[in-house]
Amino acid sequence: MADNLSSSADGGSFHGDELDEYRQVYLDETDEELESLVQALLTLEEDPQNGNALNEAFRLLHTMKGTSGLMGYLGVSELTHQLESRFEKIRSHEETLTRELMNLVLKATDFLRTFIEELRKGGNPSDDASALIEELNRLGQAPAAVSTAPAKSVPSPSTRTLGGAFRVRVKFIAGLQLADLKARLILARLANLGEVIGSEPSIEDVTSLDDLTQFTILFSSDRDAAEIRKIASVDGVESIEILPGLMEMAVEERRPPAVEISQDSFSPPAVMESIVTPAPQTDAEITPDLPPEAETARRAAAETVRVEVHRLDRLMNLTGELLVTNAHFAQLTQEMLPLFKRGSFNSKVKDLSDRLRQRLSGLPGQGGSRGPTDLLAEFAEDLDLLERLTVRWEEGRSRFTQIAETVDQLSRVSNNLQKRVLDTRMVPVGPLFNRFKRVVRDLAAERDKQVQLVIRGERTELDKRMIDELGDPLLHLMRNSIDHGLETSSERQRLGKPEVGTIVLEAAHRGNNVFIQISDDGAGLNIAKIRQRILERGLLSSAELETYSESQIVDFIWRPGFSTAKQITDISGRGVGMDIVKNRISELSGSIEVRTEAQRGTTFSIRLPLTLAIIRSLMIRFHEGIYSIPLDDVREIVFMPWDRIHTVHHRQTIEVRGQFIPLARMDTIFTWNDLSATSQATGPTATLAAETNSAPTHGVNVVILQSSGRTLGLCVDELLGGANIVIKSLTENFKNIFGLSGASVKGDGTVCLMLDTAAIFELAARQTKAPSSASPERVS
Questions:
Q1: In the chain, at which end, N or C, are there fewer CB atoms within 10 A of the end residue's CB?
Q2: What is the mean pLDDT of residues 192-209?
Q3: DSSP-assigned states of every residue in 505-559
């Protein structure tokens, strides 16, 4: 039977451009429905008596069956129909939800997710689910054929059932795009609950209307009003009225035969050219008793509009350009400010006064040779000039004040716009975190371990782009915690630990950053094994290893190919992945730290900026170039005299409040375009050795950086202050340069490169391993 229903993923009910529009909505809604379905299933697994979760799973399967059939994906429609039928039996207590059935249903969601992902990539995947349906049949008696009648629900005593024919009046929000698509999807959904008799406007007219604000469906079903409302409440719906149809007999006489909805054709039903409207006095809305929170959620959903991410990206780019332009205006006002200071004007007035006194000294009786008439004429001209200068200065001062106020207003508008645009890109991390419930469930069963996942801070918001990129790194950390970190139940009992291991996935918002932690209560990292593997691979000598702290030794887990696992599994153990995790986090302008304690567990802490678009940075100058450093990576800035720079183990070091901090010089760790060669000629940090004989008051600016619990002092030529940097992607010639993470354009049009803090630490470490003979040393 499934073979007969299988079809290629071509959307058999639609054609051309119409298909593309419908497919995108289908993909978005099915994605959300699959996420909700998995969450409902996992809830049922923990609490099999949870009626809300059971009804939600049934509703989602029912919806996916109808929309998939409407799109022509009949194999998917048949699979969801079979699952729906099994859940109908569970709802009516004819069958129980066993572990085997739950595993098969989750396997079916994997099939559906893969199918959706392939469709989204533009592929043409097969929707043949016959193998899954056969497995389902082997677990129990499955329905033999697809029924065209709606599945019977089991209403609670408090549920109001409608029965007979009635009208569903749907009103869309003003200016809704693709309203005709929403109308057809609502029709398709209702067709699976009962019989759609007709609609006004007709389905043929709906697609030709430019502005569809509402439409009415004549509908017959025995379902309750709450369920109908829920099915019809798609994105963009403002309100739904369910009106009794008291003239069913008249409608029955006038309407043409209804088109039967069959599994072979989930096309929208044929509709009447018109509908007989009941008398006005009968238009009493049937309103089921909904809890206030449900009504609030419905209204919130009606006010939500889907926006493609690339549209937000373009809006953010325009906001960035506005910020750059605003910065240019601010720079111009700063440059013009000296021109309108009173000091400049007063100097001109004093100069004119001196000239007047000199000329007056030439009057008769004052030793002058010219006549009084000539002198008075010159005097009058100078007075006129003085008056004109005074008027122009006052006008200019007044205009400049207006310009400064306008620029200040523009700054406030730009900042508010930036915040609002960022808000549109922010989404809760909850949906991302909830995906890992399934991962933990399956991996724990595979490794014969008992694991519970605790999620906290799921309402914390993060940039949508970052959410999309975080899935793989978090997945790898989660898999490692289960495979390597947590012990088996028997081992935990022997150690006096709870039999069930715990993984905590937590997010929190602090300042301009979001912190994500993954912690477990397992065995912790084996420091001795890490030391042994470092020596075996020749990464350090025994003597060098003795100088490393425990946190520095733990950092070796981020090296490519580094692993302490004795046995390679399909989950982990090959040493592939942890370096990718760190690189991916670095690409997101974030950092990751690890803390571990023997027999108490391991915690991975990820710090991420709220958004990748705009980052607050410290601007520095080195030679002729301007660079930026993320301000969150800057601990402090100090001016260090030359005589306070020491050399410890061939490395220059400074002491700040009792802490010794290693120094790095940009002319030695960065070699872009022979920068190290040119840097020997100019710049205060070019050769520290040449400055050691200078007076103690001379020194160098040091930016103290912090990352993953480490500190490093970076010597720079000049500090230019802080600024909001609008991050731009690097061109091909810069993309592969180690040490750069992005670029930006300043207000005056010059380009500044953003330094990668993690790369600075690694470059400095390389310099420590192989000290250059040209490196100056200072021994004091």
A1: C
A2: 74
A3: EEEEEETTEEEEEEEE-S----HHHHHHHHHHTTSS-HHHHHTS-HHHHHGGGGS
